[in-house]
Amino acid sequence: MAVYTFKEAKPAPSASKGVVFWLRENLFSSISNSLLTLLSIYIVYTILPPLLDWMIFNATWSGSKEEVVKEGARWIFIIEKFDQFIYGFYPEALHWRPNLVAFLSAAFILAMNFIPNLKVKIGLMLVYPAICFFLIYGGVGLEVVPTEKWGGLMLTILVAAVGIIVSFPIGIVLALGRQSDMPILKTLCVGFIEFIRGVPLITILFMASVVLPLFFSSGIDFDKLLRALIGITLFQAAYIAEVVRGGLQAIPKGQYEASESLGLSYWQGMILIILPQALKISIPNLVGSFISLFKDTTLVLIIGLFDVLAMVTLTTSDSNWLGFEIEGYVFVTMIYWVFCFSMSQYSKSIERKYNTEH
Hints:
Number of strands: 0
CATH architecture of the domain at 151-304: Orthogonal Bundle
CATH topology of the domain at 151-304: MetI-like fold
CATH superfamily of the domain at 151-304: MetI-like
CATH class of the domain at 151-304: Mainly Alpha
Radius of gyration: 27 Å
Strand content: under 5%
Oligomer: single chain
Number of helices: 14
Structural class: mainly alpha
Helix content: 55-70%
Shape: globular
């Protein structure tokens, strides 16, 4: 007859013991880790309190410039110039239009994540840019706002978004062309990629601003912002091409052979089998390139476009607000950090969503 024995259930560890265990395992697991933990605590203790005093506790949040008596940050400058930092020279009465575009952009991102129908997604991708351009630029019943008045954070996001969205398919085509067996096509793609990657973005912007209009007749007025968008898109496409090429090379040869054995054509196998795997592998590097592009948008100042950083530099030269550069640059730093950190976290969510290893 079988005999069953029961072990006495161990009591669940208390919360305090769980905290102690976590600290011991993660922060004090060895002598070197303990020393690094103590050093980190000392650095945080040294830096954080003065920083919080300057940014929050001793900061001036309201009033006028003459009423500043505290030694902390003078955020009244940011509040006073906030509209210029966000919209540039865009007419104040029309701020509702870029605000509506921001709302539509959030709705577009949510729709692309939760709508399963591919045809609906493609339709949204075609309609969304046209609606955004119509709202910001105007026409057909809306007051036209020339691109010379676009600026601030609105311009930064616009340039980065166009550069990312348009350069992505161009980069994929360049990557496929570089791996092509057609000598002429391969040479053209390699030449373009290596030339673009061999010069800095500031040179590309100068060429787009000065050289590109030479290819058109003298009567054609080539928009300055459009020149910058073309230059940034071509620059980013070269880097996207190399990232995608790395992903393609990481795909085992058996995947190519499997697509051929199924009777798929080159484009069918590439779109349905190879590219999805290559792009999934390339997500971290792709997002890294997108983050770099977002930060490189500050270079548009050299061709006369005022992004958010340029607006800070411009507003600090106001004779009524001299000496407020630190607050302006700290504000811009926080903006860039929020956007770049959000992009990195979004990429992690995409990696988890398409993770097929488990």
